[in-house]
Amino acid sequence: MKKCFEFPQLNNIFSDIIDSLNEGVNVVDKQGNLVFANRISAQYVKCEPEDMIGKHISQYYPQAALLEVIDKRTMVFYGKVNHTNGRKYMVKAKPIFIDKKLEGGFAIFSDITEMENLNNKIRKLRHKISLKSKNDAFSNIIGSNSSLGTTVEKARKTVGALGGPRHCIITGESGTGKTLLARCIYYYAKEIGVIKPDAPFIEINCAQFTNTDIAAMEIFGCSEGSFTGSKDKKGLFEMANNGILFLDEAHALNNYQNLLLKAIESGTIRRIGGNRDIPVNVIVIAASTKNLEEVLLPELYQRLGQYDLYLPPLRERSVEDKIEILTEFINRYEANVYDKYNINLNVIFSDEAKKILLNEYYPRNIRQFRDIINQSIDCAAPLISNVKDQNLNVLVDVQHLPVDSIYTADSNKNRGSDDKLKVNDDPEIVNHIILELRKKGLGPRKIAKVLNKKGIDIKYYQVAYRLKQKDF
């Protein structure tokens, strides 16, 4: 096969292709002088491409990302928003090495000024009106219109059915949103008038008590004299009267299930050590990471499990749901920055970074997913002391992802062989992970072993070659 450089006419073809892009493209030599600028780049600075050739890039783009890329001779993607002639650009730039010698660099960028102005208007509106209906208590449940639609509808019926309200059970792995769903049921019950606006929501984690007797006294209360030094004390059932009692990790109530059954059946409780029945009107929501049908008394499960609501782990959620969750957490981060500092923050995740986030396995589910998103934005964003503008754009790329948090020891769990990340699929992603592990002092063999456990199919000699190419 003849090599491309034997066909000089291909240079014109490649120039035409690059000129047809909607992004600006600049190529500079190692001194920063332009050797190529496409049509879009020239339009941004109101110039002709041929007039730009040979000129220093700072003449047209004073804050060009390429200047920093060449200065640092970095081999990683560099994301930056530049301010030129009142316009703002999202840039990705890389150096060009030939035989390990720096020969220049190239940048691909797009004007995001209008998009940012529109985003700023949207953010201002967000702080004046709610984007979600205030009449919908379940608006914080992401995916309620798709994968969780059935669960949300059942949750409404627990308190909204004509024959209700009913007690219910919520099951799901840690971090799937059981507490959030319980609170949504509470808000919905207030919204439709099943409980009063000032009705209490009392929450307790039953697994926090190593002593079940103490747990029982907390939930049911105790009477004076029931044990040495004891005084009359209301339990959580009494505190939740006319409201909702949320028993998280309810499987831990092994020894006092009969008391709970009696409270639900009769509508009365008796304090530990007491001799008087106290009437209570309480909706009980029991949540657990375990199958309560296997650990509760059959009669108790029958009363609580009339509505058994299941929240799937993140790995069982659809890609659309994950994208919606990612977008929601980005919006919350941006809103928090606006509320605290009055800064209009616009966060964009690169396609590569987004692909990693959406395809990873999260043992702690949505809670862990949220924390990793926040960590990534923290890494990409400047410190508040370095922010000089009320409008700030942040590009989150692969190098900003917390490798230690994402590629955990359990990250390959529940991942099939077809889901493995092949070396040739995402070379930049793999390179980033290799360099991060190398910085920790690992050699090629150990790096390959670690990556193999994480589902990345690579040999030790391939790792060694990549490190050599990176001159690391």
Automatic annotation (TrEMBL):
Gene3D superfamilies registered for this protein in UniProt: P-loop containing nucleotide triphosphate hydrolases (3.40.50.300), PAS domain (3.30.450.20)
Source organism superkingdom: Bacteria
Every PAS domain range: 10-63
Gene Ontology BP annotations: regulation of DNA-templated transcription
Annotated Sigma-54 factor interaction domain residues: 141-378
Record PROSITE patterns: PAS (PS50112), SIGMA54_INTERACT_4 (PS50045)
Keyword set, alphabetical order: ATP-binding, Nucleotide-binding
GO molecular function: ATP binding
Protein name per UniProt: Arginine utilization regulatory protein RocR
Natural source organism: Clostridium luticellarii
Protein's gene: rocR
